[in-house]
Write a structure and sequence with these properties.
alpha+beta, Immunoglobulin-like, nine-stranded antiparallel beta sheet, 1 helix, 9 strands, globular, signal, Copper(I)-binding protein
């Protein structure tokens, strides 16, 4: 009888540890129709359109204050490479202009937040 209880307790303990190791479904989702990447415990969403490129920064789903922040974005589209500066505009960093965005374009953002180290993140545009 003791052996059965010991085996049952061991199986129950192993089953619980397997659940604890699971990822629990934390997958950042775009809230503004962009592409999301994670870096430095932050979620960064890049929204790229032909006339505006915006970067939204969230910490556990809540917008991060961007006063005094800036970002440099390197946009790689086919053989073309362009660099632009993003500046605070409300709750996001953005640049306005005319941007050529082909499917499969890539972007590398270096984000500077006040009081923190620079964050670098890569995006693959759809």
């Amino acid at each position: 009888m003791k052996n059965k209880l010991l085996i049952a307790a061991a199986l129950l303990a192993l089953a619980g540890s397997g659940f604890a190791a699971d990822e629990h479904g934390h997958e950042p989702k775009p809230l503004h129709g962009g592409v999301v990447a994670e870096a430095a415990h932050l979620e960064l969403e890049l929204v790229a359109r032909a006339d505006v490129i915006a970067l939204l920064v969230r910490d556990h789903g809540k917008p991060v204050g961007l006063q005094g922040a800036s970002a440099r974005l390197t946009l790689l589209s086919g053989t073309e490479k362009s660099e632009l500066q993003l500046a605070p505009a409300g709750e996001r960093l953005e640049a306005r202009g005319a941007f050529e965005l082909a499917p499969g374009s890539k972007a590398v953002a270096t984000v500077m937040l006040p009081g923190k180290k620079a964050i670098q993140v890569r995006f693959a545009l759809k």
